[in-house]
Each structure stands twice: as structure tokens, then as C-alpha cells.
Amino acid sequence: MNQQADEGTKETADRNVPTVKTLVRMLVKAELERMELEKEIRTAVQEIVQLTVQDAVHIVLKEMARQKNIVDSLNQVPAATLEPSDDVILTDILKTPVQKQLYRQAQPAAQEPAGLYLYGVAAAKTGIELSITGIDGSRVYSLAAAGLCAVVHDCAAEPYRPDNDEQAKEWLFDHQDVLDRAKEKLDTILPFGFNTIIYAADRPPQNVLQEWLSQESEQLQSLIERLKDNEEYAVKILAPEEALKQAALREDPHLQKLQRELEGKPEGARYLYREKLEQAVKEALEDIVEVYFRKVYRALRPLCSDIQVEKIKKTSPGARMVANLSCLVQKNRLPELGAALAKIQQHDGLTVDFTGPWPPYSFVGQLAMPT
Question: How far is CA 107 from the centre of its chain?
Fold first, then answer.
């Protein structure tokens, strides 16, 4: 009797299962609508189903390609478009482990970067973790080969092209900041200029760079050793033009003769002699600037590991640049250099513009870069 009652109850429960399921679906759908989540979840499910179907199609086609040698067909697979049915329990699908696994498998594989942006090269047997952010927030890392370590970030196989001057300045500052921070971990770094990009059409840029490091290892190691414990400083010496003219009058016998002739002439004739003297002084300025340059160079050269003479640049009206130097200086000799520059500044109203330390760009020379 009890057994028959139990079986009857079970039959009634089985008949009610579809009704219960339908009721549950309706309750879930109503709750999702109330929370305004139904649309987002439907979209997510649709993307998962599309990726799952597309992945399955690719697996089949790959097997066909292996058997029938029709590899080209793999590139012609259309994207699957399926609409989820209204009677699908959305939350159940989202929680299914198999669907999650298929979704992960369907994600595109990470591709090799098209190019490498090169900041600098240091001596290191293995790459180290830098934890540095570079231009445009790029992750900066190290790439080691042949006892050398390159500081790089992944980039496109083309130069950076700023939209405006502000962006250009920001990128230059980012480039400089990476070199400064990398130096704290790698010590001496051979710096490379902005927009030094390594790439090749037929192989990964990492391979190109590592081959270049191996080929140029001897030269790069030599340069790094030469720059070790040295820093670059920029030295510019400015002089007032009036002070240069007075110096020319003091040191040039021809100008002194014209000056005496001018003083001995009557007022009416002085105008012509004054013009003649001023023209002679202008011509003598280049000579006096050369004299000042030699004095500065002789004072600084013994204190520097090396000096690079740069081009003279225009300055503000009424002043002349007499020296523009890039000085490679050992860290322990920096106080001596400072004292010599202070002494120069006391001479004839000269002004010293002294900046640094900078990455030693001026002393890298011409390197055979990878093509």
C-alpha cells in the first residue's frame, strides 16, 4: 500500500517537472529584466556560442587540410552567427565549466611584436626585470645576448609620429626617463636616440636584435667600458659682444692703431674713422671668439675623459656663444670641473651654462645598426 502511494507521488512529481522548469525560467527572466541584465548576458552568451562554433569549424577544417592539403580554406571560414533561444537558461550556460574552457581556447593567440623600440644597451649576462613603463605606457623589458642586455619595448614596425609638439616632448621625456631608471639597475648604459626601432619582414625582431648584439658584441662592450663611471655634461660659454669688442681692442695691434688715429682726427673726420674702426672690430670678433674658445678648451680638457666640440648656436641679441662643448667626465672629477667653470665665469663677464648629467649620446659614435 505504502509502496503504491510512493510510486503515485513520484509519477505526479515527474509530470510536474516541465511545469516547474518553465516557472523557474520565467522567474529568472523576470529577475534579469528587473536588474536590466538580460541584454548584457544574452550578448555575452552569443559571443561565447559564436567563438565555440567557429573554433569547432576550424578544428574540422584543419583536419581536412591535413588530409587533403587544402590549407587555403582555413582563411575563408565565415564567422558563425547564432541567436540564443528564449528557452535557454542563460545563467546555467554562463556557469558551465566546458563553455568557459572553450571560450578560453577560442581566444586569439598572442602574436610576436612587429618591431622593437631600442632605448639602450648595457653589459649583463642575463636579462633582468626592469618594472619600467616607457613611451605611451609601453611595458619596458630587457633582452639578453652575448653578455649584453638591450632595453626595449614592443612596438609597430614604423617610427613614432607625434600629433603635436607637446606629444613629441612627452615622448622624449619618457625616453629619457626610461634611460635614467634603467641606469639604476644596469649601471652604465649605451644610449640610443629617440625612434630607434628594430624590425624585419621575414623574422621576429627579437631574433634580429639578438643577432646584432652577438655580431657587434666586441665594439659594444668596448664602448660600454669606455663610458663606465663617466657622465656627459653640456657646457656653453657666452660672452657679451661689448666685452668681446673691448678685448679685441686690447689684443689686436691693428685695432689699437686705428683707435689712436681716430682720437687724433678733428671732429668732422672722426665719423669716417669711427665707421672704419667699427668694421675692423666686427671682423676681429671671430678671431677674439676663437681666442676665448681656446682658453676655455685648454682649461677644461685635462679634467675630462673626452670632449666633443659642438656647433656654435645663436643666442640672444648682444651676446655671442664662444664655446659649445659636450664633456665626458668621471664622477670623481666633477668638483674639479665645477671649480674650473667658476673661474672662467669670473673672466670678462663670461656666462657659463652647465647642464647634466645626460646619457652620453655624444660619445656613442657611429654604430653598425641592424638592417
Answer: 29
Q: What is the pLDDT of residue 74?
A: 34
Q: What tens digit of pLDDT does each residue of 233-242 get? A: 999 999 887 7
Are 182 and 132 in contact, with CB atoms under 8 Å apart? Answer: yes
Overall average pLDDT of the 259-273 stretch: 61
| C-alpha cell belonging to residue 105 | 581556447
User: CA 143, CA 207: separation in Å to the nearest integer?
Assistant: 10
Stretch 157-182: mean pLDDT: 93
CB 145 within 8 A of CB 118: no
Q: What is the spatial distance between Cα 282 and Cα 273, in angstroms, rounded to a whole number? A: 14
Burial zone of 121 (CB within 10 Å; 0-12 exposed, 13-18 middle, 19+ buried)? buried
Its pTM surpasses 0.85: no
How far apart are alpha carbons 13 and 50 in whole angstroms? Answer: 37
Residue 322 contacts residue 237 (beta carbons within 8 Å) = yes
Tell me the C-alpha to C-alpha distance, in Å, between residue 178 and each of 152, 153, 337, 360. Answer: 10, 11, 27, 14
Q: Is 117 exposed, middle or buried (0-12, 13-18, 19+ CB in 10 A)?
A: buried
Among 259, 260, 261, 250, CA closest to 288: 250
- Residue 119 pLDDT level (bands cut at 50, 70, 90): very high
Banded model confidence at residue 49, pLDDT cuts 50, 70, 90: very low
Spacing of C-alpha 158 from chain mean position = 13
The span from the first CA to the last CA of the chain, in angstroms, equals 93
357 upstream amide cis, omega within 30 of 0: yes
Long-range Cβ contacts of 200-203 (<8 Å, 24+ apart): none
The yes or no reply on domain 230-363 and CATH 3.30.70 is yes
